[in-house]
Structure formats: structure tokens, C-alpha cells
Amino acid sequence: MPSVEISVSKLKILFENEGNVSVTTPLGNTLLEIQGELEFPLTLPTNDVNKKFGKFNDEHIVRFGLLQVDEASKKATMLVGEKQRLLGSVVKLETPLGLLKFDQSTGSVDLQDIIRYKIIFKDRPLPIM
Amino acid sequence: MQTSALYSKLKTDSDRKLLVLKPELLAALEKDGKLEFKASKPEDSVVLCSKNKTWLLKQKNHSNTVLVMKEFIPEEIPEVSKYSSFKVTEPSSYHLGYAKQSNELEPRLTAGEIDISQLPIYTGDAQSFQIISKRSNTVLLTLDELRQCSPCSQDEFAIKWPVLGGCVVENTACILSHEFTSRALHITLMSCMAESLDFEALDLPQAFAAVNKDMGEAGEFNPFNMEVVRTILGKFCVLTQEGKFTLQRKSVGQWYGIEALRKFASRSMIPQEEFMIKWKSLFPPYFNCDLDFTTLRGNFYRPLGAGIQYFSKEALPDNPKDRFTYLFKLQSTWDLDEMRPFIDQLNTNSLKIDSFVMKYARRIRQGKRTLISAR
């Protein structure tokens, strides 16, 4: 590996500082952090009673929860499956994170987005009664 | 309050990574519009380079679940009752987690480096250069190839390369030998003085013409080509904004000083006053240069406290404890200022030098001086 350049194809939008608190970047990415493990199966189960599994662009996907974000109070609630509820918040990152895409076939790296906010869930999940 | 349904790919993309964008990195990216990942070998540490800065990348692992998500529209939209037994409103958006991150790349500002250990050495003799180039442990690269694989930014490379004695001979990146550098510097200084060139604003073609005025007349091989003169000017001058070279008399003086130490004080010690006379005698006649003895620190020791003797840093052990033992074997008590160049590189945590020394030796203050001796 002598050298690989990071190209910034969407340069202008990436460097625009957002005035408002917005968890979703202008390019549509959102960062979700849970202090713990979020487990879901890696393969399709045989009986999918609740129809949680599906396909998107020929890739298998799973529906794992619901997220409610109040951007004014910066509070977030996440319901995972049917039994757990997590309380979290929207925080501004101390240093923004660049989302890089490494393309093995062309050997190029693309800076796809700059993420300035994340939704973080630090606490233990609460049961849903 | 906005409600969003969360989905994730069963097999998340593994080609995404998160890079901590520190302000100076963000500024460089905004200014240059690009950054470069570099590593001298695939197994070496990776650095990130802007035009003039280099950052070492560390992978910071964590055990949290970090999902990068984007909005999408699922092919099948379930009824709201399917989401949860908890009373929820119907989702207004759908997010798909497509990349799971278990680490972040953290950049740390570092000094760019050029690995010259396997480059051929040019002694000013074309035949021996060809022999050296054919050795199996020699790496033959063009200057562009070396620049590409050096963990060093473009601007840092341009400054460091001539300082290391880097040159291009027969389209191959090489290093000028110490002796040849001395010869080339001496001839360049004498030629520029003979042509009354201004040392504050030297011009490369003019300096080259001056050096080559009486050379190669009878068709003999002339080792002082343009690239050699470029290296000499790059090593001993500072490039001005106008593209001229300003001679750094201090670094010229230091080079001649180390030469004098090697020549007159390598086998046995020499009194400092006598050394100063010998040092002065090495310069080209009428060349004006102040002799600053402190610039020679790190190249000598004082075997009996008074006289000085040449000593190369290369001979020192790498282990800090062994290095201190070795230094105290050479000289029982050191002035901290004279010892510092020998131990500075061991101080990897950038402690204050006084505190660092205390870990391995005894420190005594004597007026303004700090003396260091073995425990």
C-alpha cells in the first residue's frame, strides 16, 4: 500500500455547518449508539411470525424497534422488540466523525459524510409493562 | 415528536469506517479537498497526510453498538400494532442500519518520516553507485515512488528530503555520502564566493553554473550535477517565498564542526580551545561564519571532564537503562544540556527533561547548571 487518496465528492454539503440540532445529516445519515450489545440473527429464521424480516435491495433486513426523538428537548426513546424500552439523548459530538467508504475493487476511499450529532442510549433498558 | 421505525441489514456493510475529524484535520480537508492514506509497507502503521501535515492513525476499539443508519422506504410497511405492545404512534420515517462500527480511527499529529535505510548511497563515483545499486538489500525507487510510499506529507517531504542528504542520480532516489556532502558543500561555498553570489538569495541555476565553471573541461566525469547542488542548497539553506535559497550559516558551521570532531577528535580527546582553532581552519578561506560550540552537542563527550572527544549517537544502546549506563561509563558526570541530545529520543512520553532524567540518574543543581551522574 503506497498511498490511497480520500476523495470528497460531496464537498460543499459536507462542510456546511448545520445551524439547527439535527440528528440526521444533510446527506441522510444518522448515528445510533447503544452502550451494550444489540443482537439480532445473522440468518433468516424459519418461522417469522411477526413478519420482522424482509428484503431491501436484495438484502435481508430485520425490523428491530422504534425510535422517538424529540429534537427540542434532545430526548430519545427507543423500543427494542416488544419487551424493552431505552431512554437516551441526542448529543453533539465533541469532534465530528467522518464516514469513510473503502472501495476494495478500485482501491479508493470516499468521505461520504460528516456526522456531528448522535443518538446515544447509555442506560439499562426498562421493561415495557 | 417524530417516530421512526428501525431496521438493520442482517449482514451489515464492512467497508465503512468512522474517522475522528479533529479541527485541524477538518480544516485541512476543507482547504486541500483531499487527504491521503499512506504506509511505507502494508504491515506498517498507516498515516493520513494533508498537503503539509501528517497524522498517525490509531484504531480505537469499543464494545458499544454503533449503527450508521439512513432513511429508506421498506418494501412492506407493517401495521402499527406489529411494532410493540407499548402504545406507539405510527412511524413517519424508516431508518435502516447499514454499517455497524466497533471502532473509530483516531488521528494523532506526528512528524512525517522518510525511510532512507535501504536507499543506495552516492559517493560521487558513478561506477561504485552502479555496484551499490545492484546489492540485494538496496531499494531502487524514483523520487516520486519514494514520495508516494513515505509516511510523510508533500511539504514535509520537500523539506526533509534534502536535509537527509537525499538526491536523484540516474533517476534513482539516493542519499549523498557524508564525505561527498562535505566535498560538495565546500566546493559550492567556494564557487559561490568566487562568483560573488549573494548567500542571502542564492539561485539554483546560478549556483550550479558557478560550481561547474571549471569542472569537466577535459571530458572527465563531473559528480557535481544540478541534483547534487540542489541537495546541498536544500540541506544548508532555507527556501524563500521568491524561490531563492538563503544560506543558514549556523547549519554550515555545525556541519564543519562535526567534520572537525570526526577528523581531529575521534581517536583521542583534544582540548576545547585547540579544537576551536582546528574547526575554524576547515572552512573555505574568507568564509564568514560564527562558531557556536553548543550546536555540536550530541556529537562529543568529555572523557576527563575538560577535553572533548567525538562520539556518534548511533553507537548508543536503544534501551534507556543501558543507554544511561553506557553514557556514565564514557563520562561520570554530564552537564544536562550536553547530555540531552543523547537521551531526548528516549523520552517518548514528552516528560520535562529534568523529570525524565530522574528516572535513571541523579540530578544535582549547581548554580544555573544541572549536573547528571549515575545513581
TrEMBL record, chain A:
The keyword Cell membrane does not apply. One of its GO terms (biological process) is mitotic sister chromatid cohesion. It is found in: Nucleus. It comes from the Eukaryota. GO terms for cellular component: Ctf18 RFC-like complex. The keyword DNA-binding applies. Pfam families: Ctf8. Keywords: Cell cycle, DNA replication, DNA-binding, Nucleus. GO terms for molecular function: DNA binding. InterPro entries: Ctf8. PANTHER family: CHROMOSOME TRANSMISSION FIDELITY FACTOR 8, CTF8, CHROMOSOME TRANSMISSION FIDELITY FACTOR 8 HOMOLOG (S. CEREVISIAE). Belongs to the CTF8 family. This is LANO_0B01200g1_1.
UniProtKB/TrEMBL annotation, chain B:
One of its GO terms (biological process) is maintenance of mitotic sister chromatid cohesion. Signal peptide: none annotated. The keyword Membrane does not apply. GO terms for cellular component: chromatin; chromosome, centromeric region; Ctf18 RFC-like complex. Keywords: DNA replication. It comes from the Eukaryota. This is LANO_0G14378g1_1. It comes from Lachancea nothofagi CBS 11611.
